[in-house]
Specification:
InterPro entries: Diverse_substrate_MTase, SAM-dependent_MTases_sf. GO terms for molecular function: methyltransferase activity. It comes from Neohortaea acidophila. This is Methyltransferase type 11 domain-containing protein. It is a single chain. By secondary structure, this protein is an alpha/beta fold. The protein has a single domain, classed as 3-Layer(aba) Sandwich (Rossmann fold). Helix 6 links the parallel strand 5 and strand 6. Helix 9 runs antiparallel to helix 13 and helix 10 crosses helix 11. The radius of gyration is 22 Å and the shape is globular.
């Protein structure tokens, strides 16, 4: 059972805004996080009384990177250095020194000196921030899949742990369901960004303090962030390949409550253009010309690249820790290639013997092309400048100059072949693991 105020009679009493005392752990705050907590949870219980959650899917993104500089509303310009217009338009000049996206110059493992910065290379950027901005937005279908799964196997919504959370992009989604969200990351820079983001989110959603807590640590140390068997959902999005999978899984299992959920998500950063073979061929030639540099950003060292090449098949789920009959191994948009669809260029070819998947585990493959509900959202409409922005995010604005001919070719083909001459549809390959703690 997950932690509740009455579970810890020996803990000190701390005040909350309505003046009522509540038991609160020093590291993981009480799930009673607002004056209306009981009313909110009753409403959540009512909404979740069925077997599925009512989450809208397929909603269009409003991110300027998705809709590009040329759209029905006309050209749009802003000061976001990752905006496509900021990277290409001769009508717009970005002040790279003052743009809020960049961090002060300092040595940190999470920054690439000069990436997306000024020509002088004086403005380092958080590489994961850049990568996330030009990858797919986490769609409502992912939210629905994870929360539906958890609802089927657990009745507790007290505490979620966002492991390796970086800047906390997925934490607000968890906060919609769980009374408390703990955020951990190996990087102090990531935690600082997530703390700022969650403070803003809490203010906008009128939540009181204590809904989020933070700790500095690797996913392999996730059990150190909470008492054993107290976490209802442990999730890691786009980071499992950086870990020692055996240690990470056992650490998560140590913290998970009985019937608690472990959720892992990984997507391939190289998208495909669908329904337009000529444009897709030109796009894949661009990716091939990138070489190894982007993969050093996305995957890190050789171990990370090899593990990423397996989708999530490198992750073991020991039968003594997880109920194998409830495990789900899901892939989306693999074009029937399975885990091979994640192969990193230059990394060792993945062999079947490398798989850590138990023979009894359930596998499922979904396709956006067949409009499967589980796959919705991993397709987006973009314009030609999106590919320039994506390249700049992984290689840097100076690096994109080497690919001007590639960008022009892609743009010309889109103009010639797209029904509206502006937009094409791209899709990403995704791997998801969902498991239930015994």
């Amino acid at each position: 059972m997950s932690p509740a105020a009455t579970d810890h009679p020996a803990l000190p009493k701390l005040g909350i805004p309505n003046g009522k005392p509540v038991d609160m752990d020093s590291k993981l705050a009480s799930p009673t996080d607002s004056e209306n907590a009981e009313k909110e949870m009753n409403a959540l219980d009512t909404r979740m009384n069925g077997t599925t959650l009512e989450i809208k899917t397929g909603e269009a993104s409003k991110d300027p990177l998705m809709h590009d500089a040329v759209n029905s509303a006309g050209p749009t310009f802003n000061d976001d250095p990752l905006s496509a217009t900021a990277l290409i338009s001769p009508l717009h000049t970005v002040n790279w020194e003052t743009a809020s996206y960049f961090t002060p110059r300092r040595a940190t493992v999470n920054t690439i000196d000069g990436a997306l910065g000024s020509p002088s290379g004086r403005a380092p950027v958080n590489k994961w921030e850049a990568f996330k901005r030009t990858g797919p937005h986490y769609p409502p279908s992912l939210e629905k899949m994870v929360m539906d799964y958890h609802h089927r196997h657990s009745k507790s919504w007290q505490l979620a742990h966002d492991m390796g959370a970086g800047s906390g992009l997925y934490s607000p989604i968890l906060a919609k369901y769980f009374r408390h969200v703990h955020i951990s990351d190996p990087s102090s820079t990531g935690l600082s960004k997530s703390r700022t983001a969650m403070t803003l989110w809490s203010g906008e959603n009128k939540r009181s303090r204590g809904r989020f807590t933070f700790s500095n640590g690797k996913p392999e140390q996730g059990h150190e962030a909470s008492a054993d068997r107290t976490v209802d959902l442990a999730i890691m999005v786009e980071g499992a390949h950086f870990t020692n999978a055996d240690t990470m899984v056992r650490s998560a299992a140590q913290s998970l409550s009985s019937s608690g959920t472990l959720a892992l998500v990984s997507y391939h950063p190289v998208c495909r253009i669908t329904g337009n073979p000529r444009a897709n061929e030109a796009l894949q030639r661009l990716f091939a010309a990138w070489g190894s540099q982007p993969w050093d950003v996305v995957c890190g060292d050789a171990r990370g690249q090899k593990q990423f090449s397996q989708g999530l098949d490198f992750v073991p789920l020991p039968a003594e820790l997880f109920d194998i009959s409830k495990t789900r191994r899901i892939t989306i948009n693999t074009q029937n290639k399975g885990s091979a669809a994640f192969q990193v260029p230059g990394a060792p070819i993945v062999d079947v013997s490398d798989s850590r998947v138990h023979p009894s585990e359930r596998r499922q493959d979904f396709s956006s092309e067949n409009a499967d509900d589980q796959a919705k959202g991993w397709r987006q409409e973009v314009g030609p400048e999106f590919f320039r922005s994506m390249t700049a995010a992984l290689i840097g604005p100076m690096g994109v100059q080497r690919y001007e001919e590639d960008f022009k070719k892609i743009g010309d083909i889109i103009h010639e072949t797209s029904p509206n001459g502006i937009l094409v549809t791209v899709e990403w390959t995704v791997a998801i693991v969902l498991a239930t703690r015994r």
